[in-house]
Structure formats: structure tokens, C-alpha cells
Amino acid sequence: MKPIKSMKCYVFKDVSPLHILFTEEDGVIVVRCLDFSISSHGNTIQEAIESMNIALIDYIRHGIENGDIDALFDPDLKEYWDLYMELEIEEERKSFREHLKEVEKNVQSEGLIYA
After folding, report:
1. Residues 1, 16: contact at Cβ < 8 Å?
2. How remote is the C-alpha of 74 from its chain's centroid?
């Protein structure tokens, strides 16, 4: 299993995102929604996303129709969350490096901003 990409999926703008992990396994792109412990696949990332969209919609619809929303949340295995976090940290590190001059100037002129 080779980690490829991490991303977030927003069902609603004001609701916390779902955490999505892409890996390559046996020549196929596997996509996992780590919050719901469901997965899908495709030959490309785009195919995997389209397949996951269908799976997520069906999964959420099933939970709503059966009045069992709480059962939707079923976090995936720690090993997948660890891979997701490694990819997220690397992406943040890359972004920080790319904007280092801007970051340095902003910190010196405006200080740090806490959210």
C-alpha cells in the first residue's frame, strides 16, 4: 500500500470535513473515507473520487432513511489515520516552504495570528 494523497470532503460548508485518503494498491487507486470507514476505488484519482461520491451519498442516505445517523461515524483503522496525517503534514511543510519569505515578512510586521 503506497500513500498517494490526502484531502478533505465537505458535505456542508459549515460542518467539519470528512477525511479522505488515497493509496495505490495492486495498481488500483483506493480511496477511503476515514470518518465513516468506507472505501471505494478507481483506475485514476478522478475515477476513485466519483466512485467514493456514490458510496458516500448511498451511505449517508441509508443512515438518514434508517434513523441511525450516529452509526454513520465509524472511524477507520489507526494505520490509515496515521498515513493521512503524514501526508497532511508533508503538504503543510511544502506549503510553508513555498511561502517562507511571505511568512517571515508577515511574522515580522504583524506577528502571529491565532484562530
Report:
1. no
2. 15
Chain length of the chain:
115
Write down the pTM of the prediction. Answer: 0.84
Q: What is the pLDDT of residues 3-48, one digit of tens each?
A: 999 999 998 888 899 999 999 999 999 999 999 999 999 999 999 9
Task: Give the whole-angstrom CA distance, residue 1 versus residue 29.
Answer: 10
Among residues 36, 84, 71, which one has the least CA distance to residue 57? Answer: 36
For the CA atoms of 33, 25, 5, 15, the dihedral, rounded to the nearest 10 degrees, stands at 0
* 1-8: long-range pairs with CB below 8 Å, 24+: 1/25, 1/30, 3/83, 3/86, 3/87, 4/29, 4/45, 5/45, 5/87, 6/83, 6/84, 6/87, 6/88, 6/91
Distance, in Å, from the CA atom of 34 to the CA atom of 49, rounded to the nearest integer, reads: 14
